[in-house]
Amino acid sequence: MNLANKLTLIRIVFVPLFLIFMIFNDIPYGTFIATIIFVLASITDKLDGYIARSRNQITDFGKFMDPLADKLLVTTALIALVGIGVIPSWTVVIIIAREFAVSGLRSIAAASGKVIAASWWGKIKTVIQMIAIILLLLNVSIGESMYFTDMVNSNSSLNFIFNSLPILVLYLAVIVTVISGIDYFMKNRKVISTNK
After folding, report:
1. Which of 2, 14, 18, 67 could hold 57 in an S-S bridge, CB 3.0 to 4.6 Å?
2. 108-145 as b/e, with b when 16 or more CB fall inside 10 Å?
3. Domains and CATH numbers, the chain
């Protein structure tokens, strides 16, 4: 197994570790540790793609597992954030629904021997989702520290960055998620029409 694929597997292993630190409230600095795990996992997402392309190590395993690892990481984090009451559930429903729809489209295409590559909108969507999640996790981590909470609340710039910006970026992620889903279906509508 090449290095790129090992990094993909590491990202999958990070998912249950992240969840453990998010859901067990009695772990000291649990959300902060979960944030670090998520950031590290996000870095492996960029690294494995770069390594696979630069070393010509693109494999069928990587093509299948890399997007699956991304979806596992992002949806786990979003569901955990809904679970602790940080974000509204409708945002996560839209994001997950888009993932199911595009995965279904890819399955239809695969049945016809076609491969739907990741689009520019799809890549931007993933980056914005990960940024939103990191900002939201930082917001929760700061909320666990009275010192940092007081510091943020007393400074209008910090208040915006840690309290308002995360939810605004989440809403942007939802918008881009919808746009990317529409883009996939518009560009690949022939796949559906030929399978009626």
Report:
1. 2
2. bbeeeeeebebeebbeebbebbbbbbbbbbbbbbbeee
3. 3-193 (1.20.120.1760)
